[in-house]
Amino acid sequence: MKKRTLLIFTGPPGSGKGSLSQLCVSKLGFKQVSTGNLCRQEIAKGTQTGEKIDFLIKSGKLVPDGLITQMVYDWFLEQLDDGALVILDGYPRTVRQAELFHKMILDGTFPFRVVVVQLALDDEAIVKRLSSRFVCQNKQCQAIYSANPDANMMPEKEGICDTCGGEVRRRKDDVPEVIRERLRIYHQHAHPLLDFYNRVGYRVFKLDADQPIKNMLHQFEQETDGLAL
């Protein structure tokens, strides 16, 4: 069986993984699985699991590896039959998650050829960016906007999403103290994760996330040219 390419978008919170994923979906026909969106959908259901996830996210903590992996696994079982190229956005976040997913690849559950896209941006730029971020509250949309005038990413009508007409507002966890805690946890896991990807033979390339999103998409297309995505 021919292996399909799977893209893992990795990088600190606020580096643009979700925005780049959305452009790849809308302009290149890719499919995205965002663990952030999966978690928010579970929270919206009001289940006990959703309440636990909500508490962890608001505290800047990671959702347990087994739980997040099960949600990703279930998504693939439901969504993978249309042949679209898939981006993993926000997963794996720990070496244990990466090991669990790599095991699925090795045992033939998901026959993927994995390419890792690393988005690079320094911490202070991230704190500034996330403190200015606004998100569409429609769980099926989640479009991202920014109050930073340099970004030129505010909706045409204040508080209203350009894409779906949903309410646009700031997330409760996009405050400096929580952002810095999320960054601390990210850095704790980032280097071991990259070491794991290199060890198992995944191709890894880096994107400069300190640039307009359209430029980052162009760099992405240049870097992936010839990979037979």
* CATH superfamily membership: P-loop containing nucleotide triphosphate hydrolases
The computed structural class is: alpha/beta
Specify the overall morphology.
globular
Instruction: Indicate the mean pLDDT.
Output: 87
Count the DSSP helices.
8
Q: Give, in spatial order, the strands making up the sheet with the most strands.
A: 2-3-1-4-8
Mind telling me the C-alpha Rg? Answer: 17 Å
Parts with pLDDT < 50 across at least 5 consecutive residues = none
| Helix coverage percent | 40-55%
Number of domains: 1
Report the portion of residues in β strands.
Answer: 15-25%
Report the order of strands and helices: EHEHHHEHEHEEEHEH
End-to-end separation in angstroms reads 16 Å
Report on the architecture of this protein.
The protein is α/β, with parallel strands linked by helices. It has a single domain (4-122, 180-224), classed as P-loop containing nucleotide triphosphate hydrolases (Rossmann fold), CATH 3.40.50. Helices cover 47% and strands 17% of the residues. The chain is built from 8 helices and 8 strands. It has a 5-stranded parallel β-sheet with strand order 2-3-1-4-8, sandwiched between helices. Helix 1 crosses helix 8 (213-224), helix 2 packs across helix 3 (48-58) and helix 6 (123-131) packs across helix 7 (176-200). The two termini are 16 Å apart.
